[in-house]
Specification:
The complex is a heterodimer of chains A (about 650) and B (about 475). Helix content of chain A is about 70%, strand content about 5%. Chain A has 26 helices and two strands. Chain A has helices at about 5-20, 30-55, 85-110, 115-135, 140-155, 165-195, 200-210, 215-230, 240-245, 250-260, 265-270, 275, 280-300, 305-325, 330-360, 375-390, 395-410, 415-440, 450-455, 460-475, 490-495, 515-540, 545-550, 555-560, 565-615, 620-640, and strands at about 65-75, 75-85. A two-stranded antiparallel ribbon of chain A has the order 1-2. In chain A, a hairpin with a 2-residue loop joins strand 1 and strand 2 (about 75-85). Chain B has one domain (about 5-475). Chain B has helices at about 1-5, 15-30, 35-55, 75-100, 105-120, 125-145, 150-185, 190-200, 205-220, 230-235, 240-265, 270-290, 295-320, 320-350, 365, 370-380, 390-400, 405-430, 450-465, 470-475, and strands at about 60-65, 70. Chain B has a two-stranded antiparallel sheet. In chain B, a hairpin with a 4-residue loop joins strand 1 and strand 2 (about 70). In chain B, helix 16 runs antiparallel to helix 18 and helix 16 (about 370-380) packs across helix 19 (about 450-465). The chains are: A mainly alpha (about 650), B mainly alpha (about 475).
Chain lengths: ~650, ~475
C-alpha cells in the first residue's frame, strides 16, 4: 500500500498535463471530470494510506518512499522522495479532502465562466504542488512545492487578468511571497551549512549534535525560515497580500487562501519543530508575531464591508493563532487548529461564494440583508461555520482554539499576556463573524429589485460541499477533545511521534491542575457569549445605533477601515524608495555602466571576430602555416623548458 | 588472463565486425536491390547489432590479440557514442541524399567503415593499432566529404581535408616513432612502465614524441591552432556528413587522447598540463569568437564544435578519473544534441537549399514543432538547464575545479556566456522575426520516417540526459580511466 504514496501527488499532475495540453480538444465535461476525478482518487488513496498508517505501531509510523536520486553533488544528496508520517498523513487528508469538496463546488461556481478549463488546469497544478509540499522528505522538495503553490496562487488570483485589480493583486501576492521565500532559502542554506543535510529524518537525528540550544546558527536559521513563513502564511510584516488576493475566484480563496496554501508556513514550522524548539528566542518571536497578527487582523476585520475581505482578515487572524501555537511549542494544537480552520474557513468562503453567486456578484455586505429566507442552505451552513470559528462550545473551533489558549497560558514558552491577547482576539472574532451573519442574512433587504429577481439557492454541486464541510466543522473537533473534558486527545497522541520535546522539559510535563484549565475555559465561553450578544444587539436589534457608534468613534473606525494605513506606509517607506532606487540603478548603473561594459565587450568580440576572419583565407597553405606555428610553439616550449 | 592475451579473441571485435559485414554487403549485394532504403536499414541494423554486443560485454574486461586489443568500459562507452553518431548520421542522410539523387549504398558503407575505425582506435592500447584505426577512420571521411563529386564546394572540402589530414598523420606517425625510439615499445602500459628508465636517457624522445602525437590528434579534434580546416571542410561537406564529422572523429580523438596520455604518458603528464591549459583556452575562445559573426548556421555550428572541443580539453587538462567520466558523459550528451541541431539544419536545407540564418526567420509560425526542437537543441548547446548540455558542462567544470583549474573554468564559463549569443540567434530568428518576402507558409514539410525517428531520439536524449542524468552518470563513472 505504501508504494502508492507517490500516486497521491502524481494524479493531479497527470490531470493537469492532459488538460493543459489538450485543453482545446477536450470538452468541458471531460476536463472537469478529469480534474475532479484525479483529486477524488488521490483522496481515496490518502484515506487508505491513513488507515494503513494507523494500523502500524506508533514508532514505525514513518515511511519514506524514494523515487529516485535527484541531485548527488558532493555532500549534497537530494532524493525525490516522499515521507508519510502522522503529520503528512493528516495534511494530505486535509488537502485532498477539502480540495475535493472545493473542486466539486467549483463545477457549479465556475459553470458560466468561459475559461473554466484553464481554471481547472491551475487548480490541479496547485494540488500537485501542495501535495509535494506536504509529502516532500527534504527541505528542497518542500521548497519546490512551496514555490509551486506560490505560482499557482499568482495564476489563480490573477485568473481574471483582464481586470486590472486582479492582475495587480496577483503581482502583489507573488512579490511579497518572493521576499519571504528569500528568507526561507537563506534559512535552508544555513541549515545545510551547519548540519550537512536537508532531509527531515536525518536532520532530526543530527540536530542535537550539530546545533547548540539557543546558539546563533540555529536561531538565525529558524528566524529566516520563520520569515519565509510570514510571507506564505500572511503574518506581520508580510500579511498585506492576502486580503488583496480575494480578487481571485471564491473557490480559490477557499482552497488556497484559507484551507491549504496559507497554512504551509505553519506546516513547515511544525515539520521542523525539532529545530525550532532548540531556538527559544525564535520561539518567542513567533509567539509574539503570531499573537500580534491575530489581534491586529481581527480589529481590521471589524470594519470591513466586503464579505470576502472580512473572511480574509479573519484568515490572517486565525493563522496568527496557529503561529502563536507554534511559538509556545504547542505544535499539535497548531496543526489541530489548522485542520479545524480548514473545515470551517473553507465552509465560510464557499458560503460567501454562494452568497455572492446569488447576489449577482455583489460583495458589499451593506447591499445585502435578509437573505436567510432566500438561500436557507447557505444560511444554515454558514451559521454553523460561524459558530465553529467563534468557538461555540463543543464545535470544532472551540476545542482547537481552547487548546491553543491553554497552551499559551500554561506552556513553558507561554505567558499570560499571550493568553489575554488571544482571548480578546477570540471575542473580536465572534463579534465580526456575527456582524457578517447579521448584515448578510438578517434585517431588511438592501439590494435593488434587479438583483432581487436573481436571488436563488445555489445548485447541488455547490450546496453539497457546504453541507459536508458544515458537518466536519461540527464534529471535526471531537478527535481532539482534551483530557480535561474527558476526551482522549487522540489527535495529540497520533501526532506525538513527530513532535520534539522542548529541551529541559519532559515530554508530558506531569499532571497539571485541571482547575485552572476549567476557569480559562469558562472565561472563553463567557467572552464568546458577550461578543455574540453585543453583535446581536448592534446589528440585529438596533442597526441604527451602529451609525451613531461609528460617528462617536470616527477616528478609530477610519483607522480600522483603512487597515492602519499599512499599505500606504509600505508604499511610502519601502516601495517608493525601491522604485526610485531602481530607476537610478536602471538609468545610471544598468544602462550606462553595465550595458556599456557588456556592449563594449560585445563590440570588442565582434571586431575581433571581424579581424580574425581574414585569417580564414580558404587557402590550405595558410592553414599549414598556422599548423606549423602551433607545432613550433609546443615543441619549442618542451625543449626550452 | 594470460592465455586470453595471446589468443585470437574474436568476441571483443564483434561490434566492429558487425559494421564491417554490413559495409561489405552494402558494397557488393545491396547495389543490386531496387529499393534504396535497404541500405539505410542494413546500416541501422548493423549499428543495433553492434550495440547489442557492447551491451553484452559491459563490465567484462578482456583483452586479446596479444594484448593489442583491450575491451574495458571506457572503450565500450566511447563506442556507444560513435554508434549513436553513426546511426544518427545515417538517419539524417536518407532525405538529404534522395533529394539530390545520390542515395548510394557506398555512402553508407563509408560511414560504417569509418565508425569501425573509431571503434578499433579506442579499443587498442597499442600506438600502432591506434594509428591504423585512425587511418581506417579517416580515409572514408575524405571520401564522404567529397561525395558530391559534381559540387565544387564538396570537392574542395575533400581535397583540403585530405591534404591537412595527411599532414597531421605524418606528425602522428613521427611521434609514434620517437616514442618507440625513447622507450622501445608501442604498448601504452609498457611505455608507462619504462618512463622511469626513459626519463634518464631518452627523456626528450619520449616527450617530443608525445607532443607530436598530441598534435596529430589535436588536428582530429580541431583544437587551436590545428582547427583551420574545420569551417571550410564542414561547410563544404554534405550536411549529414558534417554532423558525423563534428561528433564522431572528435569523440574518438578525445577518447584516444585521454587513454594515451593517462595510461601511456602518465609519467610525463605534468609536462603537458600547461600546454593542455593553453590549448583548451584558445580552442574555446577561437570557436566562440569566430562563431559570433557567422550568418551561415552550418558554418556557425562548425565553429561551435571547435568550442565544444575546447570544453572537452578541460577534462584532458584535469586528467582525473572524474574528469574522464565527465568527458564521456559530455560526449554522449553532445552526440545527441549536436546531432539534433544538425537534423534541424538538414531539414531546413532540404527545404530551402540554403543555411543562411535568414531562412530561419518565422520558422515558428510556419513549422512550430520544428522551431521548438530547434530551440531545445540550441539551448542544450548553450548549456541551459534542464538540458543535457547543462549537466554535461556542469560535471566537466566541477571536475576541473577539483583539479584546481579555477581560472580555466572561469574562462570556460565566460566562453559559455559568449556562446549564448550565437546559439540564441537562430531561436530569435525563428520565434521573433518575420520571414521576408513571399516565403509561402503553404509549403508542406515532408519528413522521411528516418528523420522523424532521428529527431525523436536526439531530443529525448538531449532532454532525458538533462532531467535524469543519474543513471548515465553512473555508467560514465564506471568507465573512468585510472592513472597508474
Amino acid at each position: 500500500m505504501f508504494d502508492l504514496i507517490f500516486i497521491v501527488p502524481l494524479l493531479p499532475l497527470i490531470a493537469f498535463t492532459i488538460n493543459g495540453l489538450f485543453r482545446n480538444k477536450l470538452s468541458k465535461t471531460v476536463v472537469q471530470s478529469l480534474a475532479v476525478g484525479s483529486v477524488g482518487v488521490s483522496f481515496v488513496i490518502s484515506v487508505l494510506l491513513f488507515v494503513e498508517l494507523i494500523g502500524l505501531d506508533p514508532a514505525a509510523r514513518s515511511i519514506t518512499q524514494v523515487l529516485f536520486a535527484w541531485i548527488p553533488v558532493g555532500d549534497l544528496q537530494l532524493n525525490i522522495a516522499y515521507l508519510l508520517d502522522p503529520l503528512s498523513a493528516v495534511m494530505i487528508l486535509i488537502v485532498t479532502g477539502v480540495g475535493l469538496l472545493i473542486h466539486i463546488y467549483s463545477i457549479g461556481y465556475m459553470a458560466h465562466d468561459p475559461d473554466v478549463k484553464r481554471f481547472f488546469c491551475y487548480m490541479n497544478l496547485f494540488m500537485f504542488a501542495m501535495l509535494t509540499l506536504v509529502l516532500g522528505d527534504n527541505l528542497i522538495l518542500l521548497f519546490i512545492g512551496w514555490e509551486g503553490v506560490g505560482l499557482c496562487s499568482y495564476l489563480l488570483i490573477g485568473f481574471w487578468f483582464e481586470k486590472k485589480s486582479a492582475a495587480d493583486a496577483g503581482k502583489k501576492a507573488f512579490i511579497v511571497n518572493r521576499i519571504g521565500d528569500f528568507g526561507f532559502l537563506i534559512g535552508a542554506f544555513i541549515i545545510f551549512w551547519a548540519a550537512g543535510t536537508l532531509q527531515f529524518n536525518e536532520l532530526r537525528a543530527v540536530a542535537p549534535e550539530m546545533f547548540v540550544v539557543g546558539g546563533s546558527a540555529i536561531t538565525l536559521a529558524t528566524l529566516f525560515l520563520f520569515f519565509g513563513a510570514t510571507g506564505k502564511s500572511a503574518q506581520i510584516p508580510l500579511y498585506i497580500w492576502l486580503p488583496d488576493a480575494m480578487e481571485g475566484p471564491t473557490p480559490v480563496s477557499a482552497l488556497i487562501h484559507a484551507a491549504t496554501m496559507v497554512t504551509a508556513g505553519v506546516y513547515m514550522i511544525v515539520r521542523l519543530n525539532f529545530l525550532f524548539v532548540m531556538a527559544p528566542d525564535t520561539m518567542m518571536v513567533i509567539a509574539i508575531v503570531g499573537c500580534a497578527t491575530a489581534f491586529i487582523a481581527a480589529t481590521i476585520g471589524l470594519a470591513q464591508n466586503d464579505i470576502k475581505r472580512v473572511l480574509a482578515y479573519s484568515t490572517v487572524s486565525q493563522l496568527g493563532y496557529m503561529m502563536m501555537a507554534c511559538g509556545v511549542a504547542a505544535f499539535t494544537a497548531g496543526i489541530f487548529h489548522l485542520m479545524t480552520h480548514a473545515f470551517f474557513k473553507a465552509l465560510l468562503f464557499l458560503g460567501s461564494g454562494a452568497v455572492i453567486h446569488s447576489m449577482s456578484n455583489e460583495q458589499d455586505m451593506r447591499k445585502m440583508g435578509g437573505l436567510r429566507k432566500h438561500i436557507p442552505i447557505t444560511y444554515k451552513t454558514m451559521l454553523v461555520g460561524t459558530l465553529a470559528i467563534a468557538g461555540f462550545p463543543l464545535m470544532s473551533g472551540f476545542f482547537s482554539k481552547d487548546e491553543i489558549l491553554w497552551k499559551a497560558f500554561s506552556s513553558g514558552q507561554g505567558h499570560w499576556a499571550l493568553w489575554l491577547m488571544g482571548i480578546l482576539t477570540a471575542g473580536l472574532t465572534t463579534f465580526y463573524m456575527f456582524r457578517l451573519v447579521y448584515l448578510t442574512f438578517f434585517g431588511e433587504r438592501r439590494y435593488d429589485d434587479h438583483v432581487a429577481k436573481h436571488v436563488h439557492e445555489s445548485p447541488k454541486s455547490m450546496t453539497t460541499p457546504l453541507i459536508v464541510l458544515a458537518a466536519l466543522s461540527v464534529i471535526g473537533g471531537l478527535i481532539g477533545i482534551p483530557h480535561a473534558l474527558g476526551g482522549g486527545a487522540h489527535f495529540k497522541k497520533f501526532l506525538a511521534p513527530v513532535m520534539a520535546a522542548i529541551p529541559g522539559e519532559t515530554a508530558h510535563g506531569g499532571h497539571h491542575d485541571m482547575t485552572m484549565e476549567y476557569i480559562l475555559m469558562a472565561i472563553a465561553i463567557s467572552i464568546f457569549a458577550a461578543a455574540w450578544f453585543l453583535a446581536r444587539y448592534l446589528y440585529r436589534m438596533n442597526i441604527d445605533k451602529v451609525t451613531s457608534l461609528k460617528a462617536s468613534m470616527a477616528g478609530i473606525h477610519k483607522m480600522l477601515l483603512n487597515k492602519y494605513w499599512v499599505d500606504e506606509f509600505y508604499g511610502a517607506a519601502i516601495v517608493r524608495p525601491i522604485v526610485n532606487g531602481s530607476i537610478f540603478l536602471w538609468k545610471i548603473i544598468d544602462v550606462l555602466i553595465i550595458d556599456g561594459i557588456a556592449n563594449g565587450l560585445g563590440y570588442i568580440a565582434r571586431d575581433m571576430s571581424q579581424t580574425f576572419r581574414r585569417v580564414q583565407t580558404g587557402f590550405v597553405r595558410g592553414y599549414m602555416v598556422a599548423f606549423l606555428f602551433g607545432v613550433v610553439l609546443i615543441i619549442g616550449y618542451l625543449v626550452v623548458r | 588472463m594470460p592465455q586470453l592475451d595471446a589468443a585470437i579473441n574474436i568476441n571483443i571485435v564483434l561490434p566492429e565486425i558487425s559494421l564491417l559485414i554490413a559495409s561489405f554487403l552494402l558494397l557488393t549485394i545491396v547495389p543490386l536491390a531496387k529499393q534504396r532504403i535497404i541500405s539505410s536499414i542494413i546500416s541501422l541494423a548493423s549499428v543495433a547489432v553492434s550495440l547489442y554486443f557492447i551491451y553484452a560485454m559491459w563490465n567484462h574486461q578482456q583483452t586479446g590479440y596479444f594484448g593489442m586489443v583491450t575491451c574495458d568500459n571506457f572503450c565500450l562507452f566511447s563506442k556507444v557514442i560513435f554508434l549513436i553518431t553513426c546511426g544518427g548520421a545515417v538517419m539524417l542522410s536518407r532525405d538529404y541524399l534522395v533529394k539530390r539523387g545520390m542515395d548510394r549504398p557506398e555512402y553508407y558503407a563509408m560511414m560504417l567503415i569509418s565508425t569501425s575505425g573509431m571503434m578499433f582506435m579506442v579499443s587498442s592500447s597499442n600506438l600502432m593499432v591506434i594509428f591504423i584505426g585512425l587511418e581506417i577512420m579517416s580515409l572514408p571521411l575524405y571520401v564522404l566529404a567529397g561525395f558530391f563529386k559534381d559540387d565544387v564546394k564538396s570537392t574542395e572540402s575533400a581535397a583540403k581535408y585530405f591534404f591537412m589530414g595527411a599532414f597531421a598523420s605524418a606528425f602522428l606517425l613521427y611521434g609514434i616513432a620517437l616514442v618507440y625510439g625513447g622507450t622501445g615499445t608501442t604498448d601504452l602500459s609498457k611505455i608507462f612502465m619504462s618512463t622511469g628508465i626513459a626519463l634518464q636517457k631518452n627523456e626528450l624522445y619520449l616527450i617530443i614524441g608525445a607532443a607530436l602525437i598530441l598534435i596529430g590528434f589535436a588536428f582530429k579534434i580541431a583544437a587551436f591552432p590545428f582547427h583551420m580546416w574545420v569551417p571550410d571542410v564542414y561547410q563544404g561537406a554534405p550536411t549529414p556528413v558534417t554532423a558525423f564529422f563534428s561528433i564522431g572523429p572528435k569523440a574518438a580523438g578525445i577518447a584516444v587522447l585521454l587513454r594515451i596520455f593517462i595510461i601511456g604518458f602518465g609519467g610525463v603528464y605534468e609536462s603537458f598540463t600547461i600546454i593542455f591549459w593553453i590549448l583548451a583556452f584558445l580552442t574555446m575562445a577561437t570557436g566562440n569568437i569566430f562563431a559570433l559573426m557567422q550568418n551561415d548556421v552550418k558554418r556557425m555550428l562548425a565553429y561551435s564544435s571547435i568550442a565544444h572541443a575546447g570544453y572537452l580539453m578541460l577534462a584532458l587538462t584535469a586528467g582525473s578519473s572524474e574528469a574522464v567520466s565527465a568527458a564521456l558523459f559530455y560526449l554522449l550528451a553532445y552526440s545527441f544534441f549536436n546531432m539534433g541541431a544538425f537534423a534541424i539544419v538538414t531539414i531546413v536545407e532540404n527545404k530551402t537549399g540554403t543555411n543562411h540564418i535568414d531562412t530561419y526567420k518565422g520558422l515558428a509560425s510556419r513549422h512550430p514543432w520544428l522551431a521548438v526542437f530547434l530551440a531545445l537543441f540550441m539551448f542544450s548547446l548553450a548549456g541551459f538547464p534542464p538540458t543535457a548540455g547543462f549537466i554535461g558542462k556542469f560535471y566537466i567544470f566541477s571536475a576541473a575545479i577539483k583539479a584546481n583549474l579555477v581560472w580555466l573554468v572561469v574562462a570556460a564559463v565566460m566562453n559559455s556566456l559568449i556562446s549564448v549569443y550565437y546559439y540564441l540567434r537562430p531561436i530569435k530568428a525563428a520565434f521573433f522575426e518575420k520571414a521576408e518576402g513571399e516565403e509561402s507558409s503553404a509549403v508542406q514539410l515532408t519528413l522521411g520516417p528516418l528523420m522523424v525517428v532521428a529527431i525523436i531520439i536526439t531530443s529525448v536524449g538531449a532532454l532525458g540526459l538533462g532531467l535524469f542524468p543519474n543513471y548515465f552518470l553512473k555508467l560514465a563513472a564506471a568507465s573512468g580511466l585510472m592513472m597508474m
